[in-house]
């Protein structure tokens, strides 16, 4: 199969999967709507770095390792699901209080959660086992021992470029003036909704943890 056909077949699956709402999407929206454009873009960069790392690992044989050692795949999913649940609970608890108090003065807990949006985005992606499964099932089968290094590098670069473009659009829209004015007094509800979503996604990941990873 020609390189162009390989890229077309892989990214025909990856792009729609990227655009579906998930932990990365929620992280970018939450940072953009509660902290503004700069934080949203930094979260976008963190997500992009995480996806680039997973794409690189999958092309270098991560899927084969997870398929061979299913206990490792199970452990990654359990840890990732637990982290998302933990993060969701912290976000929900940090948003408690009167709306005006949260908007004017953040609690110490919220401040810690919001300290580094780049790290926040990176960790959310890093602890999302669904990203591992996506790259293991879509990207790894597209390469072989004879695939040139430049082609694998191109695939990783396209993954990162796609992520950066999509989540930048999401961040700029969600932190735009009209959106921010509309939801100016709802930041605590945004935090709570993000927390609930993270808990729900983490719970689903734990429920699916026993499903095997195939190379």
From TrEMBL:
Locations listed in the record? Cell membrane
Q: Does the keyword Kinase apply?
A: no
InterPro entries assigned: LeuE-type
Chief localization class? membrane
Q: Name one Pfam family in it.
A: LysE
Ordered alphabetically, the record's keywords are:
Cell membrane, Membrane, Transmembrane, Transmembrane helix
Membrane-spanning ranges = 6-29, 41-65, 71-93, 118-143, 149-169
From the Swiss-Prot or TrEMBL record, what is one GO molecular function term?
A: amino acid transmembrane transporter activity
* Keyword Disulfide bond in record: no
- Organism superkingdom: Bacteria
**What topology does the record note for this protein and the membrane?**
Multi-pass membrane protein
Q: Which GO terms describe its cellular component?
A: plasma membrane
Identification of the protein by name: Threonine/homoserine/homoserine lactone efflux protein
Per the UniProt entry, what species is this protein from, by scientific name? Oceanibaculum indicum
């Amino acid at each position: 199969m020609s390189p162009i056909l390989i890229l077309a077949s892989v990214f025909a699956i990856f792009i729609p999967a990227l655009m579906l709402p998930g932990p990365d999407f929620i992280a970018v929206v939450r940072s953009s709507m509660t902290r503004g454009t700069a934080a949203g873009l930094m979260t976008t960069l963190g997500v992009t770095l995480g996806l680039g790392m997973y794409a690189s690992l999958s092309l270098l044989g991560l899927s084969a390792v997870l398929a061979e050692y299913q206990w490792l795949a199970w452990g990654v999913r359990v840890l990732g699901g637990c982290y998302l649940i933990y993060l969701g609970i912290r976000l929900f608890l940090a948003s408690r209080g009167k709306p005006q108090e949260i908007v004017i003065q953040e609690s110490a807990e919220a401040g810690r959660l919001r300290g580094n949006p780049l790290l926040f985005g990176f960790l959310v992606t890093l602890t999302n086992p669904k990203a591992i499964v996506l790259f293991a099932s879509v990207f790894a089968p597209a390469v072989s021992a004879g695939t040139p290094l430049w082609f694998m590098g191109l695939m990783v670069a396209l993954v990162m470029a796609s992520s950066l473009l999509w989540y930048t659009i999401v961040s700029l829209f969600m932190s735009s003036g009209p959106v921010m004015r509309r939801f100016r007094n709802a930041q605590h509800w945004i935090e709570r909704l993000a927390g609930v979503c993270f808990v729900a996604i983490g719970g689903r990941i734990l429920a699916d943890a026993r499903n095997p990873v195939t190379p």
